[in-house]
Automatic annotation (TrEMBL):
Residues 18-204 form the DCUN1 domain. InterPro entries: DCN-prot, DCN1-like_PONY, PONY_dom. Keywords: Cytoplasm, Cytoskeleton, Nucleus, Phosphoprotein. It comes from the Eukaryota. GO terms for biological process: protein neddylation. This is DCN1-like protein. The keyword Zinc-finger does not apply. The lineage of its organism: Eukaryota, Metazoa, Chordata, Craniata, Vertebrata. It is found in: Cytoplasm, Cytoskeleton, Spindle; Nucleus. One of its GO terms (cellular component) is ubiquitin ligase complex. Gene3D superfamilies: Cullin, PONY binding domain (1.10.238.200), EF-hand (1.10.238.10). Pfam families: Cullin_binding. One of its GO terms (molecular function) is cullin family protein binding. It comes from Probosciger aterrimus.
Length: 209
């Protein structure tokens, strides 16, 4: 790997200054002839950094790189993002994992990552997310922190919805942050999308039975 000094074979400390040249050479380890890291390159990259492709760290990294499409990193995205992280090799990126994870605990960063995920994951010729992709992304983002997530997931499974639009997506986060798990403070006259009104009705019927 590029982080090892040629002479001694020892791993150089992360203090060594960032090199754009090394960062570019690192990019080309994974990029195809079209100068893009595609799905196969991403798979190899994940293997090298020791992270599953569906690990949320990969979403946070993509957000940091401002990557436009899931499964792809362009040269420009890579250089700009890795420069801001000061990473030019595998070991330096691994040393940033705690920092990347910490972004999820920061309320405003998490909101930005959550909003970013919508555009990142959708097919670029569609304005909405197909419901299966939406469910996977919601599981990744809210699955561990929102007490009602599994119930909401069940609701989506049996609902008539085939896609989720941006307004619905943004509101699910707001709902998860402000509405109690027993739904006692849900305001039916609030400006919630119909999808969430219907979820609340569905859940109240279930609770009553």
């Amino acid at each position: 790997s590029y982080c090892r000094s040629q002479a001694s074979g020892k791993v150089i400390s992360g203090e060594e200054h960032f090199s754009s040249k090394k960062c570019l050479a690192w990019f080309y380890e994974y990029a195809g002839p079209d100068e893009v890291v595609g799905p196969e390159g991403i798979e190899k990259f994940c293997e090298d950094i020791g992270v599953e492709p569906e690990n949320i760290i990969m979403l946070v990294l993509a957000w940091k790189l401002e990557a436009e499409s899931m499964g792809f990193f362009t040269k420009e995205e890579w250089l700009k993002g890795m420069t801001s992280l000061q990473c030019d090799c595998t070991e330096k990126l691994q040393s940033k994992f705690d920092f990347l994870r910490s972004q999820l605990n920061d309320i405003s960063s998490f909101k930005n990552i959550y909003r970013y995920a919508f555009d990142f994951a959708r097919d670029k010729d569609q304005r909405s997310l197909d419901i299966d992709t939406a469910k996977s992304m919601l599981a990744l983002l809210l699955g561990r922190t929102w007490p009602l997530f599994s119930v909401f997931y069940q609701y989506l499974e049996q609902s008539k919805y085939r896609v989720m639009n941006k307004d619905q997506w943004y509101n699910v986060l707001e709902f998860s942050r402000t509405v109690h798990a027993d739904l006692s403070n849900y305001d039916e006259d609030g400006a919630w999308p119909v999808l969430l009104d219907e979820f609340v009705e569905w859940q109240k019927v279930r609770q009553a039975s």
